[in-house]
Specification:
The complex is a heterodimer of chains A (312) and B (145). With 312 residues, chain A is of the alpha/beta class. Chain A contains ten helices and 13 strands. Chain A folds into two domains: 12-180, Rossmann fold; 193-310, 2-Layer Sandwich (Heat Shock Protein 90). Helices cover 38% and strands 23% of the residues of chain A. Chain B is an alpha/beta fold and 145 residues long. Chain B has one domain (3-133): Rossmann fold, CATH 3.40.50. In chain B, α2 (36-43) packs parallel to α3. Chain B is globular and about 35 Å long. The chains are: A alpha/beta (312), B alpha/beta (145).
Amino acid sequence: MVGVVSTAVSGFVHPALFYRDEAEYVGVAVPFIRGGLAAGEPVAVAVPRPRLRLLADALGADARRITMIDMSQAGRNPGRIIPTVLRAFADQFPAQRTRIVGEPVWPGRSPAELPACVQHEALINFAFAGRTLTILCPYDVSALDEAVVAHARTTHPVLVDRDASWESPDYDPDVGLRAGNTALPHRPPSTEVLFSADTVRAARAYAVARARRAGLPERRVLDVELVVSELGSNCVAHGGGRGSLWVFVDDGYLVCEVANAGIISDPLAGRSPVSPDESRGRGLLLVNQLADLVRVHTTAETTTVRAYLALD
Amino acid sequence: MIDVLLVEDDLADVLMIEEALASLPAPPRLHVATDGVEATAFLRREGMHARAPRPAFVLLDLNMPRKDGFEVLREVKGDESLSVIPIVVFSTSDEPQQIRRSYVARANAYVVKPMDVDDFMRVVREIEQFYAQIVTGPPFPRREA
């Protein structure tokens, strides 16, 4: 035991750290990081920028021995944290135990983002099952909504505070998966564009035109083109050959929504890195990279994917 | 709120029609098919369109890839369950032969697309207002509405 976070176990450990202030944050995270360094384990810290600064100050020279990632940028879309942040780091060290401080939920996350965060936290348990690493996830319980903290109890098998570590009696990652797969927020009145393999290009052209009209920066219009292209191709290939597209503005985002008659059966779809020699599995992964938020709702009949791109 | 099916492959026209309808006090729900195949799949509620609403009217362009407007007219008007849906042909063509052919195929109206943008927008709004406020549309069984 180094600090309150137990690392004397093999396999995957996924504790949530419930902290109330900066002292508690540093008081648990720094011994966890230093314990990893002392054990010769590669360590990464992926937290929002203000917390990065806090930990860097507390670690002093040790800060240069760890990988630091601004989660508010790299993990703005929770759907890309597993492939782009967590696995991108852990996969570099297949033969070594690694440690990551990963803070995907922070005060200021929007109501649209939170279900995706819960889903992400639940999926970590499946994505890293059997791996040898510890991912410590800090939660600011003084500022986060109680419902968010309650979800953290279901998505983390172990809970930690400044004094102790204990098994979560509420741990059930399936609850988190269901919470992330809730019906999407009401769509404002908008045009439905019907498409199939022969007309997906027309749907893409419509999305691009709407993106420009909505004022999306030109550098991101290409992102819209790629997002609709990938989602449209998925519909054609796996969604019964047809799909519908809606493009609308919602709360500072341009939103591209695509629905089809397919069902996503793999909850980790779009979150697993794809090797260069694999020809499939890139579509949703690419959408997760390009969009600022991706929400997916799968029912027994249809799948709806909503990709959000910030207008500013 | 009414539903309108627009069958149109010209993106500029789609955007203008969308803008014209969005400017109405009570805009309709617009569904766009960019060719006749998508249009008939939507009207026949095929696959993912199983719960598609019945449009108050169809605004139909004639010149489209794969399945053109005349084929759509023939199919819809030849299908007993769909034939009552009003279809307004909305085309750039003012050739009498095209107009006659459309009415023979049982188009409910034929409107030539105005060249002037303001006129174009006004005509679209007036077509919608006619079907939304003046016309009593065909009744559909409740589950189909």
